[in-house]
């Protein structure tokens, strides 16, 4: 079985309050984009095997989220052995939810492969164990995220016809560092209300609270956002806690000159 976990962008992101469990309450809009990883699941009669090609993921393979998700399902639903092949194309640690997407798509694929017939709500609860934004990728449709980001409500947002330019400078932004300079506060206008404004107004009403702290630590990321606006973006923002920055354009942008070491992805929304 093949599946194609896609990345997401955050449109607006407010850190509202700190929770007693050590996490933070946020509000944001999750929007899926066409940048994808590839996961192949193959039954095997021997032993569990994990293969990583494409972008190499550092660390022990047992720490990979797709392996953790499989082990959870194996223990709780008595699955047989499989080979998991993850071809990684989404930059990790980049605010794009690549690891979370891999985890959620693995859960959905296992549910189908082994005919477990678990409903989406149960899958969302399971994958939330592995990451706050994993639940979004189960249905994988535009959603307003709140709580830790694992509570979702559907929204009517369709950006088809617009073009997206995504730039990742290869800077790893530690989530702990991104949160360290933030003072949580309830915004005057919720993301769920601000997103209803025309896209030409978003730059005035939608912001990412992480930008203040991350731009202070890494001015290079702020420069990318400014560059996207100079290229004609209707709206530009850092995604998640960084370091990827995206611009939404009304027409396909001309060739763009970015540092050759940057990861650049361009596609239709």
Low-pLDDT windows of residues: none
The backbone outline, from C-alpha atoms, is: globular
The largest sheet, given as strand count, sense and whether it forms a barrel, is:
4 strands, mixed
Q: In percent, how helical is the residue content? A: 25-40%
How confident is the prediction overall: mean pLDDT?
94
Short description:
By secondary structure, the chain is an alpha+beta fold.
Commentary on this structure:
This protein has 269 residues and is α+β, with helices and mostly antiparallel strands. The protein has two domains: 2-154, Ribosomal Protein S5, domain 2 (2-Layer Sandwich); 163-268, GHMP kinase, C-terminal domain (Alpha-Beta Plaits, 2-Layer Sandwich). 28% of the residues lie in helices and 29% in strands. It is built from nine helices and twelve strands. The protein has helices at residues 65-77, 98-113, 120-127, 136-139, 175-180, 191-194, 202-205, 210-217, 219-230; strands at 2-3, 6-18, 24-36, 38-43, 49-54, 82-88, 143-147, 151-154, 163-168, 235-238, 245-249, 263-268. The protein has a four-stranded mixed beta sheet with strand order 1-4-6-5. Helix 1 links the parallel strand 5 and strand 6. The radius of gyration is 19 Å and the shape is globular. It starts with a strand and ends with a strand.
């Amino acid at each position: 079985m093949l599946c194609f976990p896609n990345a997401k962008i955050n449109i607006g992101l407010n850190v509202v309050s700190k929770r007693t469990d050590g996490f933070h309450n946020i509000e944001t809009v999750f929007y899926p984009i066409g940048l994808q990883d590839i996961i192949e699941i193959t039954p095997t009669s021997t032993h569990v095997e994990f293969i990583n090609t494409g972008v190499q993921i550092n660390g022990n393979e047992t720490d990979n989220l797709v392996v953790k998700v499989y082990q959870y399902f194996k223990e709780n639903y008595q699955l047989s052995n499989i080979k998991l092949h993850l071809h990684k194309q989404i930059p990790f640690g980049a605010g794009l939810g690549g690891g979370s997407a891999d985890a959620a798509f693995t859960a959905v694929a296992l549910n189908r492969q082994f005919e477990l017939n678990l409903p989406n709500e149960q899958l969302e609860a399971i994958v939330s164990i592995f990451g706050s934004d994993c639940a979004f990728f189960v249905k994988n449709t535009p959603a307003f995220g709140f709580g830790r980001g694992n509570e979702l409500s559907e929204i009517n947002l369709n950006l088809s016809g617009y073009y997206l330019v995504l730039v990742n400078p290869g800077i790893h932004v530690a989530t702990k560092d991104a949160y360290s300079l933030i003072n949580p506060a309830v915004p005057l206008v919720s993301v769920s209300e601000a997103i209803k404004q025309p896209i030409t107004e978003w730059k005035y009403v939608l912001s990412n609270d992480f930008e203040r702290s991350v731009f202070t630590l890494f001015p290079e990321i702020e420069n990318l956002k400014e560059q996207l606006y100079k290229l004609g973006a209707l709206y530009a923002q850092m995604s998640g806690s960084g370091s990827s920055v995206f611009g939404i354009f009304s027409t396909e942008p001309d060739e763009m000159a970015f540092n050759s070491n940057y990861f650049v992805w361009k596609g239709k929304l």
